[in-house]
Design brief:
By secondary structure, this protein is an alpha+beta fold. It is built from 14 helices and 12 strands.
Length: 320
């Protein structure tokens, strides 16, 4: 498991809000759904994503934008055009003019909403939450990240759009998985395009020793690692690995591993019924007590308290 694969394992759609919007220019939508992560694809017609307090970002036709929440933003085809619709959590939408509900009024059938025959078409897929393991990935994203697949288009997007109007057993699960694949593909392409400007954990793949060390830490997270053994496994000295790892990733190997182990533990506390003892073994702690001590130091609550009342989503705490 490489680093990007491990970090991308966090975002998972589970009954995600997913639809195709048909709009007729000029149009402008105010988004106040507080979704931590949203996929917006311009199927027909360009658009702008305008984060509150940030610079507008153009999204050309055929491109996919990843919007990091939960802050509000506006999606429009003309900069400066006042919105006439506000979108709230769960897809509830109202008219800006008189506050009347618009979902039923503008429903156009299976997972389709907007204006009949609208010449602009947008795919919208909103995630409800993310785990601690995704923290480095989401923190590295801007408010709006856009990937343009070029003239050939994105076949994944075509498949997802084709399935939107299908009603069949298991369709919701299928759409969730297709949305996940589109998100992963888009993020992978976006990070790859950053080259030397990407986050340290992504640039680490350019260094054979550091890249291999990161892969080992993610692949064998429960192993009782030492810097000496890790350096030996990747073929460099302890001092060289520590120096190069810290320079590229931003922290020493064991510090990185400790943070990663606790993030995995946090996610497993909220996504499984495993005991604290079992989770401790899974992420490399010898005893549940040692995990609890480290966990409380990092998150200010015990593992059991975290399981009962997890804090606000990761995206909420890293948005700017």
């Amino acid at each position: 498991m490489d680093v990007l694969e491990a970090l991308l394992d966090g975002p998972r759609a589970r009954g995600a809000f997913l639809l195709r919007a048909l709009l007729e220019p000029p149009w402008s939508l105010r988004i106040e759904d507080r979704a931590p992560l949203t996929v917006l694809a311009s199927l027909h017609g360009p658009m702008w994503v305008c984060p509150d307090g940030g610079e507008p970002v153009p999204v050309p036709e055929g491109s996919v934008a990843i919007v990091r929440g939960p802050d509000f933003y506006t999606v429009t085809d003309i900069l400066g055009l006042p919105p006439d619709v506000v979108i709230y959590p769960g897809g509830r939408c109202t008219s800006v003019e008189d506050g009347r509900g618009l979902w039923d009024e503008r429903s156009l059938g299976v997972r389709t909403w907007g204006v009949p025959g609208g010449s602009t078409q947008i795919l919208v897929g909103s995630y409800e939450g993310h785990g601690e393991a995704s923290r480095p990935l989401l923190a590295a994203l801007p408010r709006v990240a856009v990937h343009d697949p070029g003239a050939s288009g994105d076949p994944l997007l075509d498949v997802l759009v084709a399935e939107l109007g299908v009603e069949a057993p298991g369709q919701r699960a299928l759409l969730d998985r297709l949305l996940d694949v589109l998100l992963i593909s888009t993020l992978r392409s976006w990070f790859a395009a950053q080259a030397d400007e990407g986050p340290g954990w992504f640039r680490a793949r350019q260094d054979p020793a550091v890249g291999a060390a990161l892969t080992l830490l993610h692949r064998e997270v429960a192993h009782p690692w030492t810097v000496e053994e890790l350096a030996g496994r990747v073929g460099v000295s302890r001092a060289a690995l520590g120096r190069r790892f810290t320079s590229i990733v931003g922290e020493p190997p064991m510090s990185y591993l400790a943070t990663w182990r606790l993030a995995l533990a946090a996610d497993r506390l909220t996504s499984s019924d495993a005991t604290v003892a079992a989770i401790a073994r899974q992420v490399g702690y010898a005893t549940p007590f040692s995990l609890s001590t480290a966990f409380k130091r990092a998150y200010d609550v015990s593992p059991q308290q975290y399981r009962q009342a997890p804090p606000p989503s990761l995206v909420a705490r890293t948005s700017s």
